[in-house]
Amino acid sequence: MHFFTYNTFNNIKNLYKRWGVYMSKCDVGIDLGTTNIKIFIKNKGIVLKTPSVVAIKRNTGKLFEIGKKAYEMIGKTPDSIIVKHPVSTGVIVDYELNKIMLDELLSRVLNKSIKKARVCMCIHGLMTNVEIKALTETILSSGCEKVFLIDESVASGLGAGIDLCSSNGEIVVNIGGGTTDVALISLNGIVVNKSIRYGGQNIDSIILKNIANNYNLLIGVNSAERTKINFATVNLPKYSKKCILKGKDMITGLPKSITVTQCDIYNHLKAPVQKIVDSINDVIEQAPPEALCDIQESGILLTGGGSLMEGLPEFIAKKTGIKTRLADHPTDCVIYGIGKCFDMIDNFNLNFVKMIT
Ligand SMILES: Nc1ncnc2c1ncn2[C@@H]1O[C@H](COP(=O)(O)OP(=O)(O)O)[C@@H](O)[C@H]1O
Ligand SMILES: [Mg+2]
């Protein structure tokens, strides 16, 4: 005689739970940025944020480090190790390495196969059809069920909380590591947009070059990025703080440290940041007259890590004459937007999402 015990009940419950997990669709969002990769899983949220950097062994091509650990190795590796960004200025430049990075990171965060997953990723205005095809094929080759593509500006606006269906146009700017995307969004779509291959990494290079030219001091790219994040400003500072930079004396080849002021850095950043303003002005100039009235009301919304540069909203507002605000959590807007997009895919047909099976 079989008694239905508490244990039997629990075993059946666990079995259903496991089946449920196996049978259920898994929605995975990937923001494959030039600087960072972020992964979202439905019902879990953002499960991974790490630099999109991979270190491999030169002789075998095998993975050595990935993410933050690989990023910290930049400029310090022996000859036997290569450190690379598989994505540059918003497009995949090393497909093999990109696949290694995606496979490794997805396996770390997914507790089941990607085979039943629906994956959503971003595309932007600078990508050619060939690049879009290559991106989707990389993901489809991992065996996932469907791939959805969403425009990066739309995803960042959605993630920042704008109402996409509204007829009140809004300008969304996404400043990443290697690209800046500007879009006028209204009624579920893009009215006018402009993308440039210019972002936070270009600002790092400007800082690095100016320190080399003016002080004969060679600093690494990571030091230049740290200087930008902790010290740079595009607003004329009232009290110019001082900072010590360490590097290599370009004349003697010996270690050297110098003191720079915030004003020095500010003077070198006005021209590069103007490039971002120019791309916003291009979109404003092409906007239909009715939409221009909306923009005056709704203003410009800044998203992406690059928009965190101190004084940037004020600088853009001054140069365009349009009020400018920084989104909450600018660095996460795109991945939040990708996540929100899954809820909408099931509800109605979205004209800004493309499905590839
Ligand atoms: N506080 C900050 N000030 C200035 N730039 C920042 C700050 N925080 C992050 N960034 C820059 O933002 C860029 C990364 O933003 P992100 O949106 O993650 O880019 P991507 O999507 O291209 O990977 C990098 O260039 C980084 O240096
Ligand atoms: Mg980005």
Notes on the structure:
Helices cover 41% and strands 27% of the residues. The chain is an alpha+beta fold. The protein folds into 3 domains: 26-51 and 89-155 and 334-356, ATPase, nucleotide binding domain (Nucleotidyltransferase, domain 5), CATH 3.30.420; 163-198 and 269-327, ATPase, nucleotide binding domain (Nucleotidyltransferase, domain 5, 2-Layer Sandwich), CATH 3.30.420.40; 200-268, Actin, Chain A, domain 4 (Alpha-Beta Complex), CATH 3.90.640.10. A 6-stranded mixed beta sheet has the order 3-2-1-9-10-19, with helices on both faces. Strands 13-12-11-17-18 form a 5-stranded mixed beta sheet, sandwiched between helices. Strands 5-4-6 form a 3-stranded antiparallel beta sheet. The chain starts with 5 loop residues before the first helix and ends with a strand. Residues 31, 33, 176, 304, 334 line the site of magnesium ion (MG).
What is the strand and helix layout of this fold?
Blueprint: H1 6-23, E1 26-32, E2 36-41, E3 45-51, E4 54-57, E5 63-66, H2 68-72, E6 81-84, E7 87-88, E8 91-92, H3 95-109, E9 117-123, H4 129-140, E10 146-151, H5 152-160, E11 170-175, E12 180-186, E13 189-196, H6 200-215, E14 217-218, H7 221-231, E15 242-249, E16 255-261, H8 262-286, H9 289-298, E17 300-303, H10 312-320, E18 324-326, H11 333-347, E19 353-356
Helix pairs in contact: 5-11, 6-7, 6-8, 8-10
The protein binds adenosine-5'-diphosphate (ADP) and magnesium ion.
